[in-house]
Amino acid sequence: MTSAPEDDDATPARPTDELDDQQFVIDVFARACPSRSLLADVTGRWGTLAVLALADGTARFGALRRRVDGVSEKMLSQTLQALERDGLVVREVVSSIPPHVEYTLTPLGLRIAQRLHALVEVLEDAVPEVVAARAAHEARGRVDA
Q1: pLDDT recorded at residue 3
Q2: 130 vs 137: CA distance, rounded Å
Q3: Mean pLDDT, each 10-residue run in order, the chain (145 residues)
Q4: pLDDT, position 128
Q5: C-alpha–C-alpha distance, residues 46 and 83, integer Å
Q6: What Rg value do the Cα atoms of the chain yield, rounded?
């Protein structure tokens, strides 16, 4: 009597199967994984602030620069270019007099902004604890010196 092959031996399809042909695994700890550079773009000093500022809606470059206090034009421009390359931001040139550029988050950018906003809420709520911890650390440093 011949037995039919069992399905238990079949390897289930993984979400990364299509990417296996490209010779990388989606793992932020892997050096070549694109998620690592995306993480750097989003969580860099200005990336997080730009994404959060755009979560409020479409904005022009100047408005973003005013909202993200302390960022230079060059850094904001580079940050927006990286976020656009990563598919988080759409840059649109508006034909008006004078012409101007507007930036908007993509659906992916909005999903990331929601998570960043939750993180910022935790961080802002923790400020009193952090200030106290820093003061205690500084006080210990003076005694230990």
Answers
A1: 43
A2: 10
A3: 44 48 74 90 94 97 96 97 97 92 98 97 97 94 68
A4: 96
A5: 11
A6: 23
Question: Could you give the domains of the chain?
Answer: 20-112 (1.10.10.10)
Question: What is the residue whose two structure tokens read 């908007």?
Answer: 104
State the residue for tokens 């390897």. 11
Token pair for 20:
């296996």
DSSP labels, 54-79: HTT--EEHHHHHHHSTT--HHHHHHH
pLDDT value, residue 32: 87
Sign, Cα dihedral of 86, 92, 93, 98: negative
Structure tokens at 2: 């011949």
Nearest CA to 106 out of 121, 120, 85 is that of 85
